[in-house]
Design a protein that fits this description.
The chain has a single domain, classed as TIM Barrel, CATH 3.20.20.100. A hairpin with a 7-residue loop joins strand 6 (83-84) and strand 7. The chain is an alpha/beta fold and 270 residues long. The protein is globular, with a radius of gyration of 18 Å. It is 39% helix and 16% strand. The protein has a seven-stranded parallel sheet, covered by helices on one side. A two-stranded antiparallel ribbon has the order 1-2. The protein has ten helices and eleven strands. The chain binds NADP nicotinamide-adenine-dinucleotide phosphate. NADP nicotinamide-adenine-dinucleotide phosphate binds at residues 14-17, 50, 122, 152-153, 172, 199-205, 208, 225, 242-247, 250, 253-254.
Length: 270
Amino acid sequence: MKLGELNVNRIGYGAMRVIEDPDIWGPPKDRANAHRVLRRAYELGANFFDTAESYGPHHSETSIAEAMHPYPKDLVIGTKCGLVRPRKERWDEDGRPEKLRQDLEGSLKRLKLERIDLYQLHAPDPKVPFEDQVGTLARFQKEGKVRHVGLSNITVKQLEAARKIVPIVSVQNRYNLGDRHSEDVLHACERLGIAFLPWYPLGDGSSLRTGKVKALAQKLGAKPSQVVIAWLLKKSPVMLPIPGTGNLAHLEENMAAAQLQLDDVDFKSL
Ligand SMILES: NC(=O)c1ccc[n+]([C@@H]2O[C@H](COP(=O)([O-])OP(=O)(O)OC[C@H]3O[C@@H](n4cnc5c(N)ncnc54)[C@H](OP(=O)(O)O)[C@@H]3O)[C@@H](O)[C@H]2O)c1
């Protein structure tokens, strides 16, 4: 599928989880494992990695560079800006242009890149005019430091407003079997032909424990995670799930979901 003009496979990797801490705070608990998971994700076909300045903070990006640099030609890395972590339980928006600039320069350095393929505003900051935040990302693109601009945690109205300022190639909102609040945003992405990256694609693991999913998985001889990811893939051609895991066995399962095709009856039963 397309991310701008870039080709990526249908299942990406959510690199927030290399940290293996429930608060996504600090360096990975097991650095060697983090590197193994990242390399294996790429080997298994995840050639889009999602990360953010705020994961760790910084440690998810650093781990990606440690494990993968020099990068394979077809690996697309998307990172995000505009959050601040004063302590582990806080994820505060900070969309001031100077903070976004600081995030960009830090991400370029940590990821060892001269240009970031996908740069996403993590969440609009209500204290700063939305147009100024998007305008700042547009400036980064003009400077050649960002290839494509994406948005996260936005409404259809915000997507429309942003598109008047700069081309938007992706939206990343919370979406999974049990939480379809962003269905209107998904439909807008379909209409516009831009990628929709559902975060919490496994419902943070909770979708895997529902009776319907477990029963269908048993019937199909598949894992619950595969049923849930296959459902997302069938749901829309613009869907780019980014399941997160720090566990190699889970990673293998998640990536193998690309081979599972749900028929219409099973799809509608979920
Ligand atoms: N834009 C945003 O605001 C935002 C917010 C949150 C996340 N994200 C991005 O979206 C990505 C995906 O979200 P997420 O990682 O929070 O949630 P998720 O992918 O829905 O679920 C991850 C959780 O499920 C577990 N898991 C993964 N595969 C499994 C399997 N096959 N069987 C059983 N358990 C499994 C993981 O634990 P193990 O590690 O033990 O496998 C982890 O606890 C993140 O990594 C991040 O890149 C973005």
